[in-house]
Amino acid sequence: MRIEEIHQANRAGWNEGAQAYEDDLQERIEFLRGGGTNFCPPEYAYLKNLKSWCRRAIHLQCAGGTDTLSLWNLGAHEVVGVDISERMLAVAAQKSEALGAKARWVHSDVLETPHDLDDTADLVYTGRGALCWIMDIEAWAGVVFRLLKPGGRLYIFEGHPVANLWSLEADHFELDPDYGDYFNKEPLADAGWPDTYIGDLGRPKAEHATKYERQWTLGDVVNAVIGAGMTVKRLEEHPDSFWNSQPNMNPDLLRRLPQTFSLVAVRPL
Ligand SMILES: C[S@@+](CC[C@H](N)C(=O)[O-])C[C@H]1O[C@@H](n2cnc3c(N)ncnc32)[C@H](O)[C@@H]1O
């Protein structure tokens, strides 16, 4: 399969998954209207004082827009969300309309992000289960580079690639038979969603669209960012997770291995 075909297959899967984002739309609007922000504790250190430096934040793979609009609540003057799922973006648009937020929603494969956004972002933000759906990490980094203003900043808060290796059901660290190879370079096909995220949507797994994930190592991500011309400023690994990935594990044990990472890079002036 070509990369575009894989991404379109993923689009079908995420359009199905968007049902769960429709279901909590009103709850999310109230949360955001109350000034809520949806970030994990480690992210706040990297998203400080947005009001003073962030005119435009572009959120790649914005899903239902809650995180994008959390950037707005944190002080970004204008937010742009890019996503391949039109059904997700419809959810995001309802949120920004309800809030009167300065937001634009762009329906696009991230690799095809429209060029009118080039050189305009003070901040490109992404992560929380985003990079694994992109089949070309170098092309992705090239898009980030062109979207940033010179001097603009990329902030990734992403699932640590080590955290993707384990069986989700186990109560101890057990390599998953499919996902348990850190250096696997082939896309992995699967259908359906974990119970703690989206769930079965009221139908059996066999009736869900097949989606494809690609496991990027930490080195793959860092080298793609450097290769695109950005300067890496900081890389930090965190014990904090952004979702309940292994519900049967003792949370203290889970925190002994990295769950997420933060990467900050800038486009040179
Ligand atoms: C796990 S979500 C991102 C996390 C988000 N913070 C959330 O609220 O769940 C992944 C998103 O990536 C989007 N996506 C997957 N492949 C994409 C692609 N090639 N281009 C743009 N968006 C893509 C999906 O539609 C989905 O909305």
Across the major sheet, the strand order is: 3-2-1-4-5-9-8
Which ligands, by name, code or SMILES, are bound?
A: S-adenosylmethionine
| CATH A-level architecture | 3-Layer(aba) Sandwich
Please summarize the sheet with the most strands: 7 strands, mixed
Topology overview:
Layout: H1 3-23, H2 25-33, H3 41-44, H4 50-53, E1 56-60, H5 66-73, E2 78-83, H6 86-99, E3 103-107, E4 121-127, H7 137-147, E5 148-159, E6 188-191, E7 210-213, H8 218-227, E8 231-238, H9 251-254, E9 260-266
Parallel strand pairs: 1-2, 1-4, 2-3, 4-5
Antiparallel strand pairs: 5-9, 6-7, 8-9
Helix pairs in contact: 1-6, 2-6, 7-8
Bound molecules: S-adenosylmethionine.
S-adenosylmethionine binds at residues 7, 10, 14, 61, 63-64, 66-67, 83-85, 88, 109-110, 128-130, 133-134.
Brief descriptors of the model:
269 residues, alpha/beta, Rossmann fold, seven-stranded mixed beta sheet, two-stranded antiparallel ribbon, 22% strand, globular, binds S-adenosylmethionine
Describe the model:
Helices cover 32% and strands 22% of the residues. It has 269 residues and is α/β, with parallel strands linked by helices. The chain has one domain (3-266): Vaccinia Virus protein VP39 (Rossmann fold, 3-Layer(aba) Sandwich). The mean pLDDT is 97. It binds S-adenosylmethionine. S-adenosylmethionine is lined by residues 7, 10, 14, 61, 63-64, 66-67, 83-85, 88, 109-110, 128-130, 133-134.
Give a short summary of the structure.
This protein has 269 residues and is of the alpha/beta class. It contains nine helices and nine strands.
